[in-house]
Amino acid sequence: MVGLKIGLDIGSGAVTAAVEGNKGVVLSEPAVLALEAETGKILAAGEEACRMTGRCPDAIRLTRPLLGSGIAELQATQELLRIFLEKICKNKIFKPTVAATMPAGITNLEKRNLLGCVLRAGAGRAVLIEEPLAAALGIGVMTDKPYGTMIVNVGAGTTGVAVITMGSVAVAKTVPVGGNLMDEQIKHYLKVNRGVSVGRLTSEELKKTLGGAKMRDEAIAAIARGKELSGGMPLYFEVTAQEVNFAIRDSVDAICRAVQSVLEVTPPELLRDIADDGIFLCGGLSDLYGLDDAISQATGIRVKIPGNVTGAAAIGCLRALTTENYLSQNGYPFVTLETLDI
Ligand SMILES: Nc1ncnc2c1ncn2[C@@H]1O[C@H](COP(=O)(O)OP(=O)(O)O)[C@@H](O)[C@H]1O
Ligand SMILES: [Mg+2]
User: Which pTM does this prediction carry?
Assistant: First the structure.
């Protein structure tokens, strides 16, 4: 008898899991932990902790341990993953085998730390796969043939760009730009230009409903709730799409530049394949209005958004686990707690 096989996308904003034998994604929760400030005791995790954003007293500290570049808070990451793995495995006796995502291009030390988190969180065996490669496996565009495919994964904390050929990553780059930075930029814009302070959840909502990498045909606006900076009273105010687009413009440019910089160092034959097939855009932020067109304009290459932009990496990890010999043939070894420390 063996444990469950789990594909785990450890995203910077959310953790998503797919399990063998189940269709699609079985868990998708924000990577947020609520801790008692004084003792560090865990009070809530995931969705429940996320609802406290901007609403909790000083006695509670919210942490998003995965949002920075690299994992800053190893202990919190481990605890978060433990809670999610327990939710998935319920009371299964055997420890699960986990294939988890890592940002493309992290150092060996960062890999070890991440593996340590996954194993100490309860995995019996674990293997890490670059997030864009996992996404490619999940959307089914990757082959083991010598043919280039470009995946751009735009998430909350990072954007990962990778060129994949023969089942593994040829060129890759991860930049610390994503939806979260845009949320911060919207907050900052409203503070400086409108004299209003808004919460994280509000700025994220504005990004989703109004924001775009280009202007829509029709002018749209929304009523948001915030707090006057002078006086501190609550107020309703109107925000236009134009303002939001202006606020996030630098992030859109940075994403386009990251894609361009990877294309620049991509060998010519692979580049030709990418130009023929187009660039695949996935991750939650690929739903940002016009981001595909902006990347397409910056590179001169078509951009396609496959279905299931957020579940693809978890499903891809599971596919890597369940496809015989895939991991061993492509140089992705399993690690256990015993082998991690040697
Ligand atoms: N419709 C949407 N429009 C714009 N951004 C979106 C939309 N839906 C989700 N997002 C953003 O996508 C990001 C999360 O993407 P995801 O791929 O889940 O991140 P990660 O893998 O880093 O956890 C968040 O910043 C979220 O606000
Ligand atoms: Mg992701």
Answer: 0.93
